[in-house]
Amino acid sequence: MIQAIVTDIEGTTSDIRFVHNVLFPYARARLAETVRRQAHSEEIAQALQALRQETGQSDASSDALIATLLRFMDEDRKSTALKLLQGIIWRGGYQNGDFHGHVYADVAPQLTEWRRQGVRLFVYSSGSVEAQTLLFGHSEAGDLRPLFSGYFDTRVGAKRESASYHAIAGEIDLPGGQVLFLSDIHQELDAAQQAGWHTRQLIRGPADAASRHIQVTRFDQINLREFCQ
Ligand SMILES: CSCCC(=O)C(=O)COP(=O)(O)O
Ligand SMILES: [Mg+2]
Question: Distance, CA 18 to ligand 1 centroid (Å)?
Answer without folding.
Answer: 10
